[in-house]
Prior knowledge:
By secondary structure, the protein is mostly beta strands. It has a single domain, classed as 10 Kd Chaperonin, Protein Cpn10, Chain O. 12% of the residues lie in helices and 35% in strands. The strands form 2 sheets. Strands 6-7-1-2-5-8 form a 6-stranded antiparallel beta sheet, covered by helices on one side. Strands 3-4 form a two-stranded antiparallel ribbon. The protein is globular, with a radius of gyration of 16 Å. The chain starts with a helix and ends with a strand.
Amino acid sequence: MLLDNHLFSNTISLALMSKVNLKPTAGYLLIEPLEKEVKTASGIYLPDNAGEKPQKGKVIAAGGKTYSENHEVESPAKVGETVLYKKWGGNEVKIDNKEYIIVKFEDVLAIEK
């Protein structure tokens, strides 16, 4: 049986980066949100419950291609890349007391270089 190279590389990266044994379905990304800023630009420290929810995270796993309007749509980001995603997009999940977010491909706004 032949393995899809993209699927195989995602599986290896997932094993190396995280102990999460979860693969998103086609059209979705599993993202580990980055910690929110606790210090303002002027040096003021904020309490944990202050501030907005993060919109930036690291891609842990990517689902397969999906189809939209009769054409293939591949993942906009690869495993390991840091992305910016829509503020209220995606679904939060908690696995082993760690929070993740599952977002649609179209909810990814930018890839950090």
